[in-house]
Amino acid sequence: MNNSRILINNLKIFQGINQNLINVLLILFGTILLTISAKVQVPFWPVPMTMQTFVVFLIGSTYGVRLSFLTLVAYLIEGAMGLPVFAAGGGILYLTGPTAGYLYGMTIAAVIISYFANQGYSTSYLKSFISIIIGSAIIFSLGVLYLGSIIGYNKAIQAGLLPFIPSELFKIALAVLLIPNLNKFIK
């Protein structure tokens, strides 16, 4: 793995500081961003959009694989402990409720996007698009599969996928435009 490809490692402000401290601070920063992104709703058609998957795309594209995984796991643990980090609160029931598949999908997606970023996929628009579209597909596949096991698959597609396609395409486009430019700016 080429650590110079991990965007966060190229920030000069982190050079010379204990790596464990940096990792803890980045995990905390990531979970705060995820919490804020879950709470802020942007009016969008046909349903309001949160920026949560966008933040997952950013974490995956800028953190290393291990740090991405630990950040999303920390977020899930914070929610399980009852901290109001999810869109409508917190508690262990969120990790088994109707949206649990999306939460677990976000964790896997961040790791996969991070893996691709480590391979240089965060440096070009096309490669960023490929990694982020795969990450988004993972989030929605796991989310709809789990939701479908509760309410039926046709209803899960109607309620848990189709209304979110327009806003998801917007977040994917935003991430694809931002991430390669961040790479150029930081390097």
Describe this structure in words.
- With 187 residues, this protein is mainly α.
- The chain has one domain (3-186): Arp2/3 complex 21 kDa subunit ARPC3, CATH 1.10.1760.20.
- The protein is 66% helix and 2% strand.
- The chain has helices spanning 19-39, 52-62, 65-80, 100-118, 125-151, 153-160, 165-186, and strands spanning 41-42, 49-50.
- The protein has a two-stranded antiparallel ribbon with strand order 1-2.
- It is globular and about 50 Å long.
- The mean pLDDT is 91.
Fill in the CATH topology. Arp2/3 complex 21 kDa subunit ARPC3
Order of helices and strands: HEEHHHHHH
Question: Considering DSSP H and I runs of 4 or more, what fraction of the residues is helical?
Answer: 55-70%
CATH architecture: Orthogonal Bundle
Strand content: under 5%
CATH class type? Mainly Alpha
In spatial order, strands of the major sheet run 1-2
Q: What is the total tally of β strands?
A: 2
Nearest-integer average pLDDT: 91
Structural class: mainly alpha
Based on Cα principal axes, name the global outline.
globular
Number of domains: 1
Distance between the termini: 18 Å
Count of discrete alpha- or pi-helical segments spanning 4 or more residues: 7
Q: Unreliable stretches, pLDDT < 50, 5 or more residues?
A: none
Radius of gyration: 16 Å
Instruction: Report the biggest beta sheet as strand number plus sense, adding barrel if it closes.
Output: 2 strands, antiparallel
